[in-house]
Write the structure tokens for this entry.
Amino acid sequence: VSEALLPAAVGSAPIGVFDSGVGGLTVLKALCAQLPGESFVYLGDTARLPYGTKSAATVTRYSLKAAEALAEYGVKCLVIACNTVSAFALPAIRERAGAVPVVGVIEPGAEAACSASRSGHIAVIATEGTVRRGAYQAAILKLRSHARVSAQPAALLVALAEEGLCSGPIAEAVARHYLAPLFREDLPGGPPDTLVLGCTHFPMLSDAIRAVLTPQVSIVDSATTTAAQVHSALKAAQLLRPAGAAQDNGAPAVRFLATDDAGRFARVGSRFLQRPIASGEVELVDL
Ligand code: DGL
């Protein structure tokens, strides 16, 4: 049994957030909104992304390195903002994390989907790895055993979100390419009534996705529910900081770490976080 990676936490410690790149900033945004008193260390493994096309062994190896790097900052909780890492490596990270809570995004996303769906027929779009692992399928069926889950890898949407092509004809054509087969009217039992955006990048494309679906379909992602789970985990452990405790110009303090190209992280990341990030704010780290 390996030694625990993270020491016992204190309330004033930051929350560690890990993603393969900038996508997890959509989750960080929700965390900052729901946990305004906290400070955060966000690590994007920009040197090794994408994770979504890699094997379970590789994703797990990279993720343990990243968790180790965040442990150096004395984090009191680790949020795995990446769906692919949550799908493949959560048990390995939890095993190493000792008493420090580790919150992934798949269970919260499944919870959001189950509360939104009336029919129990739920569609999921995610990376190839997340779909292949059957992570959302399993998490949804655990909460709702009679649910029907149709999952589809949608790799091109990751590239579109990073290119800033989030709405308009190209984004809608690609969204339609992936979603049309999932939402066919002639499916036995009818089309799904809920779509899970099972990848950090997809909330960026929600306008294009909305445009190709009927208004009856609920679109859910993990960010808000994940932030709510982190809130409850910290509250239960008496580690929650009151609003205002770690504020930096009215917003929670965030330290950005990346493994490659601070400039690109800042430029693309500013869109994902919906606030400016200066490249000088991004520290390069080696894993
Ligand atoms: N962050 C990844 C996820 O949510 C998407 C990008 C990647 O493939 O690295 O699965």
